[in-house]
């Protein structure tokens, strides 16, 4: 959390994660390069820099597709959450591979000539008005720039400095980068040759990424409907307006029920110590993760994404951390939980419901 | 104390909950070991599979391992070309295109040796019946000063060869490539991905070539010149890698075919 920053908070698990990621990358690239030299030897060999360009580009594309699948996968099956936890390591690794692709392409296709190689990337070739002649390099460069910006701001320091909404906005642009990469492929390699496996690879990636997001959206929309509550409008009346949101005993211990009242910010109602109830905002202050999908661990509400914690009593992170979330008032009548949808300020204490008999 | 918990509570309670800084729950641990193994194997299989799906390059060779020395009569217009008698068949004249290293024409390095017998050190580039020589260094073009009787007679015979033969008007559809990459320096050295490179090459003066196919799909290469037989590299650069219709005068010089393009002789298709 926001207490003292170091470059990377290494732990053994993160190291194992990175080792696996780089093992996968090195294995893919090494096999690609080695086998390209074996399969295409002699007169019909492919130029080595072109093999490298292809190895790095296909590797980066597969990685980007995989990264975009992690979010929906983790929402569909909680076992994938640890992949999400370290996703930024995967993102930085992707940037390295994409940069290698760009570097070899600039070296090979744009250097050794009368133009400055970088100038050549942006000026040579093509006409945006002619479909067969659209320069593809610009789209790749733009995608690379987005990845660069994301990697540069991937650290929690930037997350805290920029604030979760702006940070999220920057990082959601990975979808824009993905679209740019698809256009880069369409006007580049696919226009060069659309008979190989590239159309299949690109098609499968779009289908998988798009499909998983659609499935997740439908699944979660269904889940949302179950907890969406309509309540009569209440203007800041002196009397709180209580909204019934179900039987408290239906909430498993150390878990939450998430409700959205009149489409306002969602509320997570946690049950812990078997008989205690506390309501807080569902939005984690770190990267706006869904707190209500988290748990109470050691008496603290714990976010499922990166484990930020908040005290049920007042929505404050335990010292030395300083994050605060909004809290809500609760009461229980005949085992029905009633919540006051008007939030208290972030970090405001209010009585915890303790059901005795 | 209430006892009526929801039925799935125990199951939900048992579901592992991962927090990055706490030890991994054991069920998740074994899941991740298996997942990591599967993903790494998948990476290997993909590397193999994607590599195997590439297409072989067209047969061509750039011999960077060895410097060859070639002697012949140098002509510089429209492009530096070395003419000699084919060593295997002394009655046949062979024309060897000269280029400099990188994406640069050999015009500068050969300007002083027009119509002279020279000896050039360089790296041979071959594709089909074409031969090109990438000059090894600036001082690798040398005038043959102490001409042997044989050299003198070769010079005489080469100089006596008929100049350009005019073969009539022609209009062909094809792709403009830069001859250096296409003949074997880059494999593949044509098409959309290579377009920017071809442009840089031609802006550097590398001779442009039209690659056209006949009815039997056989490829033919024609060097392109301006209408008055000059260097058309810069003119052709922006049409690289596109399907174009070229019209002009078909000419033959030694074993090379040229098209001296009409004004507006390049049209996009
Ligand atoms: S979003 Fe990162 S810990 Fe909650």
Give a concise summary.
Chain A has 357 residues and is an alpha+beta fold. Chain A is 48% helix and 13% strand. Chain B is elongated.
Polypeptide structure, described:
The complex is a heterodimer of chains A (357) and B (269). With 357 residues, chain A is an alpha+beta fold. Chain A has helices at 12-39, 48-76, 81-85, 87-110, 117-123, 137-152, 156-162, 164-172, 174-187, 189-192, 198-227; strands at 228-229, 243-247, 255-261, 267-272, 276-281, 295-297, 300-302, 309-310, 327-328, 330-333, 336-339, 353-354. In chain A, β10 and β11 (336-339) form a beta hairpin. In chain A, α1 runs parallel beside α4 and α4 packs antiparallel against α6 (137-152). Chain A is elongated. Chain B has helices at 9-14, 26-52, 107-110, 149-159, 179-185, 195-203, 233-237; strands at residues 61-62, 68-75, 81-85, 93-99, 117-127, 130-135, 141-143, 165-178, 208-213, 219-225, 243-253, 256-268. The longest helix of chain B is centred in the first third of the chain and has 27 residues, at 26-52. Chain B folds into two domains: 60-159, OB fold (Dihydrolipoamide Acetyltransferase, E2P), CATH 2.40.50; 165-268, OB fold (Dihydrolipoamide Acetyltransferase, E2P) (Beta Barrel), CATH 2.40.50. The termini of chain B are far apart. Residues 1-13 of chain B have low confidence and may be disordered. At the A-B interface, α1, α2, α3, α4 and α10 of A face α1, α2 and α6 of B. The structure holds FE2/S2 (inorganic) cluster. FE2/S2 (inorganic) cluster (FES) is lined by residues 284, 286-287, 289, 303, 305-308 of chain A.
